[in-house]
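Below is how a single chain appears once it has passed through the pipeline. First comes the sequence as given, then the structure the pipeline wrote out for it. We keep one example in the README because the format questions we get most often are answered faster by looking than by reading.
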Amino acid sequence: MTKFAQKFFVWLFLFSFFVISASCTVTTRTVSPDEELTYDETYTFADKKKIVKALVESLSTKPPIGDATDRPIIIIYGIANRTSEHISTSGITDDIRMKILATGKARFVNEAQRENIIKETDYQQGGRVANETKIKLARQMGAKYMLTGTLRSIEKKERRQARLTKKSYIYYSLNLELTDIETSLIEWADSVELVREASKPLIGW
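Resulting structure:
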């Protein structure tokens, strides 16, 4: 092998090394929570914000919560995920609860902390806490309404045809219901619908 060929292969190796190293470099940036980031047609953080905003506005302004004056108590029994994606629906209900509380229209039972509340209550009643500071029994508030919901999705893809890109759509629908626990009547219900389109090249990374 000539010296020229040796130098050529050395430079080719170094060039390839730097190209690969540069492509493996991780870059980061701080993103505003209000910035809408969409990489494909699947559920995103921006979708959650739209869903929560619409449902909070409806729940807090329409009867029975909208015209209530006694800040009725609500218990959340979760949103069932009927999609094919791993979506944390508790993030939706947590945000709804926080924003409804901020309106002052309703109160919520802390159902997630019931076991800890019982544990602390038993401790205080065990003789280790001064009588003037320990909580009184049978003072917990019962919920008047139960908030439940279902998240569904439908995915559609274009049929095979001669084209450079392929489109797909996902339709999301979140339905919420507010049920009067005493009467079992649904007193409020609303839904939010989202449709996202994605166009993907048939050949690519």
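The chain has a mean pLDDT of 83.

See the next section for the split statistics.
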